[in-house]
Amino acid sequence: MRLRLVHTLSLTLLAFAGLAVLALGGLTAWNLRNGFGNYLAARDVAHLERFAGVVGAAAARPGGLPDLLQGRLDLRTLLDELNPPPLSLPGLPAPQDRRPPPGPDSDPFPDRVQVVALDGRVLAGSPLSAGRGGAGPVVERPVRVNGEVVALARMRPKPLVRDGGEARFLHDQYRVIAAGSLGLMALALLTAALLARRWTRPLAAVQDATQRLARGELTVRLPAGPDLADRSDEIGDVVRNVNRMAEGLQRLEGARRRWLADISHELRTPLTVLRGDIEALQDGVRPLRLEAIGVLHDEVLRIGKLVDDLHLLATSDLQALPCHFAPTDALELLQRVARRFEGRARAAGLSVSLQGPAAPQTPAVPVTWDADRVEQLLANLMENSLRYTDAPGQIRIGLQQAGDEVKLVVEDSAPGVPADQWPQLFEPLYRGDAARARLHGGSGLGLAICEAIARAHGGQLRASASTLGGLRITVTLPLNGGAPTATQPQADADAGARP
């Protein structure tokens, strides 16, 4: 039989509460017994001290001391002086003596007390026995006459095992303690059940939600409320994390489906062109010339480039992108990329400029990177700017070193990208304007590859608005790319592909 969590928690809380109640009840009963015994013993000793005073007063009367020392004082008379009988008023019946009669279970004071001389002779009372229950040693108090000790008053303490009224009093208290303990146990059981249900209700909701997520119901969400998402404890954190996980899974599933649709579309376009050209050649509509073969070759290259890019992204998702780290000069790398695209930019009506520390007079910036991968990253950024920057325009690249990081910046002039699209810029095949993207060519994978290369170096990419009026891409890489830093991508600068 499977034991549910609510039952486990209830039994655990009840066990702890039961142990606490039993320990408290036992301690209370033990303390009551010992405290009551100490109280009775102290009262007994005080009674003995008063008895010694009565004996001393009787011995101080004329002829009293010789009578005491010769054993002529009656113990009962002395005890009556200690506890005088109640007075009777004229015209009223004599009050009854409420002192309990001696019985087999009683241990009266007269049977436990005696007066002895200093040499040990018994002057009043009977010899003291050890008594029942291990009462302990005999208690003595001096009998004084005019400040001089003339005799000793001795008392055998009451037995430790109480009987009579004292025993009944203790038993009544024990019953009260037991009843209170049972009541506390019942209250603990009720409280444990309520607390367990309050704790397990959100966990049951989380279990149901995760089961539905496992079945593919990615729209499931745990509602807000004081028992679920609005809780401020760890259970509330779990509920909120489940909701965030469901949202992330839904986004990933949507991205996966969109990516499959985009990939099929991107492959369908060149394949359709190839099919049309081949059929035209087969039907004799177009003559078989070098120009027709060149068109077919270009389409094949475009498909091959798209497949290579998709393979690169898939590799970066499945594992770290293969990189060969070696010492290189970041400044020289940036200048080489700028020279590589300078002619194409000039032909397109754009100017390429180096800014700040990337100027030629700046000394070398030694880093440990995969130079080919980083050059591919910068080339993709330059291609992106060349393809989408209106002429006349500007492309500005720069390098900034801050501590153990290097920032590579590529920015261009208008047009820019709306800020609400920045979080999606580096998503594979993302197009802010699909028609415009197809007009300028490209597969929409360039910036996604840039993000994969930066991540393989332990860096990140950030998209923001350029002061030139266009888009600014900032690539932050550690100096030692072989030992990735703990820097995490900013939420507003995660990867995507600029249209």
Overview of this protein structure:
This protein has helices spanning 5-60, 64-69, 75-82, 164-214, 234-283, 290-318, 330-347, 371-388, 434-440, 446-456; strands at residues 113-117, 122-124, 139-145, 148-155, 326-329, 350-355, 366-369, 393-402, 405-413, 425-426, 460-465, 469-478. It is α+β, with helices and mostly antiparallel strands and 499 residues long. It contains ten helices and twelve strands. It is 51% helix and 15% strand. Strands 6-8-9-12-11 form a five-stranded mixed beta sheet, with helices on one face. It has three domains: 1-81 and 108-217, no CATH class; 234-318, Orthogonal Bundle (Helix Hairpins), CATH 1.10.287.130; 326-496, Histidine kinase-like ATPase, C-terminal domain (Heat Shock Protein 90).
Elements, N to C (H/E): HHHEEEEHHHEHEEHEEEHHEE
Mean pLDDT: 77
Molecular shape:
rod-shaped
Can you tell me the residue ranges where pLDDT is under 50 for at least 5 consecutive residues?
98-106, 433-440, 484-499
Side by side, the strands of the main sheet go 6-8-9-12-11
Radius of gyration: 51 Å
The number of domains: 3
In short:
The protein has 499 residues and is of the alpha+beta class. The chain has helices spanning 5-60, 64-69, 75-82, 164-214, 234-283, 290-318, 330-347, 371-388, 434-440, 446-456, and strands spanning 113-117, 122-124, 139-145, 148-155, 326-329, 350-355, 366-369, 393-402, 405-413, 425-426, 460-465, 469-478. It folds into 3 domains: 1-81 and 108-217, no CATH class; 234-318, Signal transduction histidine kinase, dimerisation/phosphotransfer (DHp) domain (Helix Hairpins, Orthogonal Bundle); 326-496, Histidine kinase-like ATPase, C-terminal domain (Heat Shock Protein 90, 2-Layer Sandwich), CATH 3.30.565.
